[in-house]
């Protein structure tokens, strides 16, 4: 008597036994592959740019021998693949090399700047996320009425204006005309927490206005799509008030798309602070990267680009995982 053939493959069996874990592992592996591909694009793209650091550093009057000496000292004469493998291996260990311009450790400088950028983005997120969700629910409660129309008009205006324009308007109004805010937004290690909050008031307000409108409108759209469901009509027929039915039934069932849009905007808060930091002269990662681009300091530009990409990919992966956990159909597929 022969043994029956297995009905499913081992890989398929793992997916059937642990569907949630399989989906999470799949997202994690895809994120690592994507980050590896982005690292190739960052390194290869910077290598493909015309000119180099040696020519920029020495100026137009540099002799070919002087340029060749600097290229030799920096290792630019070695094959591109060798330099990429060495750079990626060191980056995985947290070593981004030495700045060509300042001769300082890139990792140490990024450690200080990244903390400033995360502090600014985190404080903006603490304000914008609850405010966006609350305004979205309020807009649904008063849909097609005056409060809903006012919120929509303001959100459309905020989406239409670029962040640098909003930043300059806030500087002109609150720093120049009223003298209520600090400009430039300079922070340093010995500053107290309250002093830091005062210093970042204007850049925080700019980031909040930029991401608030998008999150609020997506929250409104997600909840409205749930409001047309049969169980929402049942909740209203049972006597629940409109706002209570939104909070208790509509918002939890619209959680997955809301989580996605919040995570995407949080990623923008970290990655998109470049323009805001330059406008307010804030000593963060964005300002550090722009300064490095002007002098073609490639180790700094490569490190900043890779960190920005890693943060963006990580937050997108987190959004996917949270959306899977929040969706019963994905947690328990048939």
Automatic annotation (TrEMBL):
Grouped into one coarse class, the protein's main location is membrane
Q: Where are the transmembrane segments?
A: 20-43, 118-138, 150-176, 196-215, 254-280, 300-326
Q: Which GO terms describe its biological process?
A: transmembrane transport
Q: Fetch the InterPro entries from UniProt.
A: BPD_transp_1_N (IPR045621), MetI-like (IPR000515), MetI-like_sf (IPR035906)
Q: Taking every annotated instance into account, which residue ranges of this chain make up the domain ABC transmembrane type-1?
A: 114-319
Q: Name one GO cellular component term.
A: plasma membrane
Bilayer topology: Multi-pass membrane protein
- Family matches, as PROSITE patterns: ABC_TM1 (PS50928)
Gene3D superfamilies from the UniProt entry: MetI-like (1.10.3720.10)
Pfam families assigned: BPD_transp_1, BPD_transp_1_N
Query: What SUPFAM superfamilies does the annotation carry?
Result: MetI-like (SSF161098)
Q: Where in the cell is it found?
A: Cell membrane
Q: Tell me the keywords, alphabetical order.
A: Cell membrane, Membrane, Plasmid, Transmembrane, Transmembrane helix, Transport
Which protein family is named in the record?
A: Belongs to the binding-protein-dependent transport system permease family.
What name appears for this protein in its UniProt entry? Binding-protein-dependent transport systems inner membrane component
Species annotation: Rhizobium leguminosarum bv. trifolii (strain WSM1325)
